[in-house]
Write a structure and sequence with these properties.
Layout (H helix, E strand, L loop, with lengths): L2 H4 L4 H14 L7 H9 L6 H11 L6 H26 L3 E2 L2 E2 L1 H5 L1 H20 L4 H23 L8 H26 L4 H28 L2 H4 L5 H4 L5 H9 L2 H13 L2 H13 L2 H19 L5 H16 L3
Antiparallel strand pairs: 1-2
Helix pairs in contact: 2-5, 4-5, 4-9, 5-7, 5-8, 5-9, 8-9, 9-10, 10-16, 10-17, 13-14, 13-16, 14-15, 16-17
Length: about 325
């Protein structure tokens, strides 16, 4: 099922998020205004604000105006993280367009990412709700920790599945968890239901990143709309690569290590075949599937109508091709 059809229950609020997000990207000076215009024309899915709005609506007594504002802040945080990631990875393509760093250079792009983060926290601070500020500031620090841990483990061919999972929780999954939890708070849900939504978001986020890492090895750049093989070319060991190395005999392991270290089109082609033929992709998707199952189980007695939407989103995450 297409995401656009799944998210119909929050379409009006999501449109409000998109409009406000575009206005937040406007500035009176260059190059900030140019970067803002460029970002506002990108075709982002607004996946994180969608989770926040759905969670808020599941309470039935939501402050939707505040939820829209937080949704804008969340998308700004996400956009900032993508800019910083692209700088670190030296990525050239994002959403089928040149990355900000490839157009404006690294120095300006770093400051642009910081600017978006500052805008996001300014929006949150104006809402006078310390719960929101606490949640997102903690997650922002976790995102930095995850990125640093991943960089520190570059070309560490002994990295474990547990270490990998801790990194992706910090880099991406906790933000999805916070979107669901904060949505629950804004929907005046009970603490128990809010915790369930947070757990749903965390499991969903882990699965999302595992699928993303599989697509990075097997997907097509034109379909994904972003540079592929970026993580591997930076020596970042994702779950499929971890499984490939673990299952290989000594001779094949040495070969795999050489290919990962070497990089380039020939190495990519060989490793793509190995990832599929060794069962590493299948095994990784099974792990993702187990987290999707856990995510659905965490929904419990969530609003009946919206529970189906949450479940459809979980299925979308597992089956997506881009």
């Amino acid at each position: 099922m297409e995401l656009e059809k799944i998210i119909r229950p929050v379409r009006p609020e999501l449109d409000a998020v998109k409009n406000s997000y575009a206005s937040q990207l406007k500035a009176r000076f260059e190059p900030v205004n140019g970067i803002g215009r460029y970002l506002s024309r990108s075709r982002g899915k607004f996946f994180r604000p969608t989770l926040l709005l759905l969670s808020a609506k599941s309470g039935g007594k939501a402050d939707l105006g505040k939820a829209v504002s937080v949704g804008v802040a969340v998308e700004l945080i996400h956009a900032a993280s993508l800019i910083h990631d692209d700088i670190i990875d030296e990525a050239a393509l994002r959403r089928n367009r040149k990355t900000v760093n490839s157009k404006w250079g690294n120095a300006i792009s770093v400051i642009a990412g910081d600017y978006l983060l500052a805008k996001a926290f300014h929006i949150i601070s104006k809402l006078n709700d310390t719960r929101l500020l606490s949640a997102f500031s903690k997650t922002a620090s976790r995102m930095c920790e995850g990125e640093m841990a991943q960089l520190a483990n570059a070309y560490n061919f002994e990295v474990t599945e547990r270490q990998y999972l801790d990194i992706i929780k910090r880099k991406s999954a906790y933000l999805l968890s916070d979107c669901c939890a904060v949505g629950g708070m804004l929907g005046n849900l009970s603490d128990r239901k809010t915790r369930r939504l947070a757990a749903y978001g965390l499991n969903l986020g882990i699965a999302f990143q595992i699928v993303d890492d599989c697509l990075d090895l097997t997907g097509d750049e034109s379909d994904l709309g972003k540079s592929v093989w970026q993580d591997m070319d930076e020596g970042k060991l994702t779950l499929p690569l971890i499984f490939m190395l673990r299952n290989a005999n000594r001779k094949n392991r040495i070969k795999l290590v050489e290919l990962i270290t070497l990089g380039g089109n020939t190495a990519h082609r060989i490793l793509k075949g190995e990832a599929v033929n060794s069962g590493a992709i299948t095994r990784s998707k099974k792990v993702a599937s187990s987290y999707i199952k856990s995510a659905k189980e965490k929904l419990g007695d969530c609003n009946g109508v919206l529970k189906k939407t949450f479940c459809d989103i979980a299925d979308y995450v597992l089956e997506r091709k881009s």
